[in-house]
DNA sequence: TACCATT
């Protein structure tokens, strides 16, 4: 079926709305395709914007690479498509991890070529890309991949901090790019800052002892929940913990006050009788000062996958663990254990825009710009079985329109989600969460 | 002060 020396290609810069069937015509003009797979998130099934492509013939792969790589830009993308042998094909060349550099503090006007010239003296460059925003302006940083680790290290040694580029606010940064684990962590931190939660490392507030004690007590419960749900799915676990924390913080005005008041179920954990910290930072610091976090050495989390470990890791750094106070605090009965992710684990495919029965579908507005299907899904997973989660995207720019729909398989979940999340403040905005209007609602007859 | 996308 395929030649013994066939090459598996990695294809990058694919719009997330294109599936295999859409991509096939683009690639089959270079030969018969043996396999074409869009890369999706293992747990959520979300399109990652790239794919693997194997032609039956080696020659077809070479033709496709030379015709397409960096040559053509797919609609909605701001960089040309990437077509090159997958990392797994690398013979002799080391993993990209230890030879790929992140370069920061570049001038906004520096191009790929400018950066390449700067790094050329240190060795052969495989890849050199300035990162750009949706409007095409440089983010002032780039990736530079050398063929070997030593060359990359040499570039760091002589270039890092060596000069200040025109227009840059400080001297050139040259370091190894984040590993996958670090990227996960960084994403979590972004979400954390979206929610107005800050690193305890940067703050120095006095500890809240009573609060800290209460939180400490809750940690036991939290560990139990984590242990339980770990059997379902790591993401579901994380989502559940995260959402309970968020919802509870929200309910207590620690990071936000919902427009729709949530009545704390009093006395579930005795929390309501404790002095509430006036803001998230104090809570964070209090916990951190005592060195408490829910994922100690013996925690059941120890054996979980990298994604979850990334979350667990973040708790060390960002003090996310400072917000567990919350258990049982959400007025709304806490949603049944989410199972959608676990199911999807077997069948990650065709997560189309399914709609639930009337009363099961909710409309969410004022989503953060950077929330995609995946983030919104995670946000609502804890309220029940999610049938679909769709953020609407501008077709021209591929940018979120900041609203979307989530469908559950039962009305109670939808109500729980509305109750807990309507008015939830994120940054300067509050989520609007309400039942989706039935299709024919506004039609006269 | 930013980290694209590798099953």
TrEMBL record:
One of its GO terms (molecular function) is RNA binding. The keyword Cytoplasm applies. One of its GO terms (biological process) is mRNA processing. GO terms for cellular component: cytoplasm; nucleus. Its main location: cytoplasm. CDD domains: RRM1_CELF3_4_5_6, RRM2_CELF3_4_5_6, RRM3_CELF3_4_5_6. The keyword Acyltransferase does not apply. Keywords: Cytoplasm, mRNA processing, Nucleus, Repeat, RNA-binding. Coiled coil: none annotated. It is found in: Cytoplasm; Nucleus. Residues 7-88, 99-179, 360-438 form the RRM domain. InterPro entries: CELF3/4/5/6_RRM1, Nucleotide-bd_a/b_plait_sf, RBD_domain_sf, RRM_dom. Belongs to the CELF/BRUNOL family. PANTHER family: RNA BINDING PROTEIN (PTHR24012). This is CUGBP Elav-like family member 3 isoform X6. It comes from Cottoperca gobio (Frogmouth). The lineage of its organism: Eukaryota, Metazoa, Chordata, Craniata, Vertebrata. The gene is LOC115020855.
